[in-house]
Amino acid sequence: GPGDAPGSTSADDLQFNITWAYPGAFQVGQTISVTSGNMTGALRSGLVNRLNRSLFATIDDWLAAFNSTEPAARSLAMEDSRLVMFPIIDQAAIIYNGTGSAERVVISGFATYVVSQWSESGKQVYGYFVKSAYEGSVSPSGVNYGTLAYHLL
Fold first, then answer.
1. β-strand 102-119 against 31-33: which pairing, if any?
2. pTM of this prediction?
3. Per-residue pLDDT tens digits for 26-65
4. Which among 19, 58, 68, 105 would be 20 to 30 A from 90, CA to CA?
5. What does each C-alpha distance from 90 to 120, 132, 140 come to in angstroms?
6. Stretch among 6-10, 82-86, 92-96 having the lowest mean pLDDT
7. How far apart (Å, rounded) are the C-alpha atoms in residues 76 and 69?
8. CA dist., res. 49 & res. 72, Å (int)
9. Nearest to 26 by CA among 144, 125, 149, 140
10. Using CA atoms, how far apart are residues 136 and 151, in angstroms rounded to an integer?
11. Which residue, 114, 144, 118, 140, is CA-closest to 127?
């Protein structure tokens, strides 16, 4: 059902996870299942839903808040539905199935991306990678790229 683990072949799960964000947690070093295929309708619906939930009418409004010196405006931008976290994968550690498609990948870091728009004609997602930090922890042996974590004491 909605929110099922990555690797689910359900278009409903994909749409749910894009609309609301995957409800689970991931960590560096974790191996996750992946699915290939064409689920353009679920991708489009999920992105439209996600953008409709945004507090900002346009990407320019979001960028103004994100670049603001006002902590409250920046905080709203960092919590907005336009932001998504992508796992960065270790391409040397991809596990393939018998047909040559990726079956499982290892997470080596995370990247933060802000979605600006969806192109129906080109079936492309447009946006920007943003420099960010989120509350959490980083292993001493962690990689020095991607989204960093912090912890307030």
1. antiparallel
2. 0.75
3. 888 889 888 777 888 898 999 999 999 999 999 999 999 9
4. 19
5. 30, 21, 18
6. 6-10
7. 12
8. 25
9. 149
10. 5
11. 114
Query: Would you place residue 114 in the very low, low, confident or very high pLDDT band (cuts 50, 70, 90)?
Result: very high
> Could you tell me the two tokens for 123?
């079936």
Give the alpha-carbon dihedral of 93, 98, 104, 109, to 10 degrees: 30
Mapped onto helix, strand or coil, the DSSP state of residue 118 is strand
Q: How many CB atoms lie within 10 A of CB 29?
A: 13
What's the pLDDT at 81? 95
Q: Can you name the residues that pair with 17 across neighbouring β-strands?
A: none
Q: Please, is 15 exposed, middle or buried when counting C-beta atoms within 10 Å of its C-beta (0-12, 13-18, 19+)? A: buried
CA 97 remoteness from chain centre: 25
Amino acid letter, 28:
V
| Residues 124, 54 contacting (CB under 8 angstroms) | no
